[in-house]
Amino acid sequence: CSYNKINHVYACENHESLNVSLKTRMGFKGWVMSDWGATHSTVESVNAGLDQEMPSNTWFNEQALGVALKDGTITQDAIDDKVLRILTAMFTAGLFDRNNTGSLAANVTSDAHNRLARTIAGAAAVLLKNGGVLPLPRTVTKIALIGDNAVKPVVHGTGSGAVAPPYIVTPLQGLLLKVPQAAITFVPSSDLSGAVQAASEADVAIMVTGIASGEGHDRPNLALPEQDDKVFAAV
């Protein structure tokens, strides 16, 4: 269950979505785990259908659950159902059929996974507007490549969105490979006058920007890095 509220009730203590929709109407037999830090209560969450708090036991701990059981605000049947759901999934996956000799630090990436990730990333790229500029013609001989992200691109977000790629082809490297006949002038975001001059002297100017987003905070707007906005406006 997620961080947000559903109809003014936190998702991890939302009876309608967890008990009614998920477990009853949809017949879900697995268990519900909270997103990291998304649990906000003991009694409400237990009774609403949350089965496991992650990553700690701030609310689902022995003392809090024991008090709630003793005063009757939660039932033993509710606890047993949560344990049954978790253990059933573990037995189904065969976790009790073998010794746990693995390591969380193990790198399980494969070449096949890397090729698939590359295919998905390429298919996910969206060209919002072209106007006949792309693909670059072979007649292009001078390119102005502007922006720090041309050499240090943002390739993933932060938090759970941080996935280190097996390799990175920067925009500069890609252009050198695909347009070998062109002379490429790179200008960093900090060089406003240099960017304007390079763009004016080139057959085509390519401006590259990027900004990282992640869980734990909301972006106040969709603005690009301030210096990039200034450079792009000038160019």
Structure description:
- β3 (142-146), α6 and β4 form a beta-alpha-beta unit.
- The strands form two sheets. A three-stranded parallel β-sheet has the order 4-3-5, sandwiched between helices.
- The protein is mostly helical and 235 residues long.
- The protein has helices at residues 15-25, 43-48, 62-71, 76-92, 111-124, 171-178, 192-201, 226-234; strands at 5-6, 9-10, 142-146, 183-187, 204-207.
- It is built from eight helices and five strands.
- The chain is elongated.
Task: Note the main attributes of this structure.
235 residues; mainly alpha; 3-stranded parallel sheet; 5 strands; elongated
Summarize the structure.
With about 240 residues, the protein is mainly alpha-helical. It is built from 8 helices and 5 strands.
Rg is 26 Å
Shape: elongated
Give average pLDDT, whole number: 93
> Number of helical segments?
8
Q: What is the structural class? A: mainly alpha
CA-to-CA gap between the ends? 46 Å
Annotation, overall tally of beta strands: 5
Order of helices and strands: EEHHHHHEHEHEH
Stretches where pLDDT is under 50 for at least 5 consecutive residues are: none
Question: Per DSSP, what share of the residues sits in E-state strands of 2 or more residues?
Answer: 5-15%
Secondary structure: helix percent = 25-40%
- Walk across the major sheet and give the strand order: 4-3-5
Biggest sheet architecture: 3 strands, parallel
Topology:
Blueprint (H helix, E strand, L loop, with lengths): L4 E2 L2 E2 L4 H11 L17 H6 L13 H10 L4 H17 L18 H14 L17 E5 L24 H8 L4 E5 L4 H10 L2 E4 L18 H9 L1
Parallel strand pairs: 3-4, 3-5
Antiparallel strand pairs: 1-2
